[in-house]
Amino acid sequence: MSHAPTSTTPDARPLKVGVVGLGWAGQQHLEAFSGAPGVEIVALAGLEVPVRDELQQQYGIEHAFADWEDLVALDGLDAVSVAVPTFLHAPITVAALGRGLHVLSEKPIARNADEGQEMVDAARQAGRVLDVAFNHRRRGDIMTLRRIIEAGDLGRPYYAKASWLRRAGIPMLGSWFTNRNMSGGGPLVDLGVHVLDYALHLLGEPKVLSVSAATYSELGRHGRGGDEKYSAMATQSAFEVEDFASAFVRLEGGGTLVLETGWAAYREQEDLLDFQVYGTEGGASLTAVGASKNPVADLRVFTEKDGHNADWTPEVSPGAGHQAVIGDFLAAVRGGPEVWGAHDGSLALSRARVIDACYRSAAEQREVEV
């Protein structure tokens, strides 16, 4: 079996990519790749025939397959996007890396850290890029707050709270999302991994020492907590995961982070994505009511000057989301072998280890070291 050729000189020729997955995430990848210079989408894979045919025609894609194995086996590919249910992340990624392809996987990296480790090992063995799509860290408001924290305007952050909460947002009751074996968990692994990622990113990547977590399944198991936007409501299997989770996270250096994530809870109707931080010289509040529908959050910085409040509101522009994620991935691929080793999926694996520890803590009702 021949490995796919990959250019080692930037922009030497168009990068040929394939996308596995026809849902919202896969369509975000297709749109971003189609607008990127020097990229040719040559293959698409997914089971939904009408959607696959429509996307193939829309983007002028030469090859369209039902089975991901056929796409990965296609000669001439440089890279593959994996935007499918979580239980398929590891097998597709490992197979693609074995073919010498670079891989961009949707979050989370896998159902658990053991599978994530297999993916990272495969990337290192192949000497190829493995990136995981954490698009929320590419929000304009989060990037702005990161610059403020990095500049030292808040001093040393010592306490933070971050959340992503929905009122009725269980994705497709009875689907793979609510099947533990296929998804790896509920909102903690689905939304919580995003929250954990942008929170640690904002705090400068402190090492996580331990977690104390709790999970709840109070609405989904009774068929509640879904609506037309998120849920098919026709249940094909039991609700096997949590619908709400919280975690107290101890960080190296004495800092702490509190996470909340929920698909369903009796709260305000609009989704909430937020981050609150207290530092030795100031604090900040980032609040996006409407979450992903709201491209710019309400961002405020709280500090003082000469003993008086000197709060201010930074100017924020919308971020680029998946377009930025795809841009980062393409830059890594084009960077050549000297860059690839820094993109082996290990950061996403570290997120998975924290999520695994949270589930263990909740199950055993005790604090768990990471």
What does this structure look like?
- With about 375 residues, this protein is an alpha/beta fold.
- It folds into 2 domains: about 15-135 and about 325-345, NAD(P)-binding Rossmann-like Domain (Rossmann fold, 3-Layer(aba) Sandwich); about 140-320, 2-Layer Sandwich (Dihydrodipicolinate Reductase, domain 2), CATH 3.30.360.
- The protein is about 30% helix and about 25% strand.
- The strands form 3 sheets. Strands 13-12-11-7-10-9-8-16 form an 8-stranded mixed beta sheet. A 6-stranded parallel beta sheet has the order 3-2-1-4-5-6, sandwiched between helices. It has a two-stranded antiparallel ribbon with strand order 14-15.
- The longest helix is centred in the C-terminal third of the chain and has 19 residues, at about 345-365.
- Helix 1 crosses helix 10.
- A hairpin with an 8-residue loop joins strand 12 (about 285-290) and strand 13 (about 300).
Under CATH, the homologous superfamily of the largest domain reads: Dihydrodipicolinate Reductase, domain 2
CATH class of the largest domain: Alpha Beta
Number of helices: 12
Globular, elongated, flat, extended or rod-shaped: what is the shape? globular
Task: Give the integer mean of the pLDDT values.
Answer: 93
Order of helices and strands: EHEHEHEHEHEHEHHHEEEEEEEEHHHE
